[in-house]
């Protein structure tokens, strides 16, 4: 059983920074793409940033230049460094990973979500 556990959310003032972490554990053979999504109340869940197994990254236009996604394959962990936070960044942030387990079955997994609140 694969599990993604997120940490690092919290309350921060506008202009501040937070670093989110998402660690995968369980019967993992490999992890392909990893990504961060967010969902604000009344809004659709949106892709914030993604990173491939080879390190290629993609960002939503709204966070380009402010957020950085990275991964530590040895730790099965993906990070989201969020700088110059804005109130509109307030949302629940979800980690997503496409994982191949030790039985060679691939699937998408989701973290439990971590709240990020940016005050103005």
Task: Please characterize this protein's 3D structure.
The chain is mainly beta and 120 residues long. It contains no helices and eleven strands. The strands form two sheets. Strands 2, 4, 5, 6, 9, 10 and 11 form a seven-stranded mixed sheet that branches. A hairpin with a 4-residue loop joins strand 7 and strand 8. The protein is elongated and about 50 Å long. The model has no long low-confidence stretch (mean pLDDT 96).
Concise account of the structure shown:
The protein has 120 residues and is mainly beta. 0% of the residues lie in helices and 60% in strands. The termini are far apart.
SSE succession? EEEEEEEEEEE
Report the span from N to C terminus.
40 Å
User: Share of helix among residues?
Assistant: under 10%
- Looking at how many chains there are and whether they match, the oligomeric state comes to single chain
Described by the principal axes of the CA atoms, the overall outline is elongated
Low-confidence regions? none
The total of beta strands comes to: 11
* Estimated structural class: mainly beta
Annotation keywords:
single chain; 120 residues; mainly beta; seven-stranded mixed beta sheet; four-stranded antiparallel beta sheet
């Amino acid at each position: 059983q694969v599990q993604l556990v997120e940490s690092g959310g919290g309350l921060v003032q506008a202009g501040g920074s937070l670093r989110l972490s998402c660690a995968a554990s369980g019967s993992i053979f490999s992890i392909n793409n990893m990504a961060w999504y967010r969902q604000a109340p009344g809004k659709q869940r949106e892709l914030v940033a993604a990173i491939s197994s080879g390190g290629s990254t993609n960002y939503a236009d709204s966070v380009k230049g402010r957020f950085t996604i990275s991964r530590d394959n040895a730790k099965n962990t993906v990070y989201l460094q969020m700088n110059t936070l804005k109130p509109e960044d307030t949302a629940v942030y979800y980690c997503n990973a496409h994982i191949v387990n030790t039985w060679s079955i691939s699937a998408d997994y989701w973290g439990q979500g971590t709240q990020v609140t940016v005050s103005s």
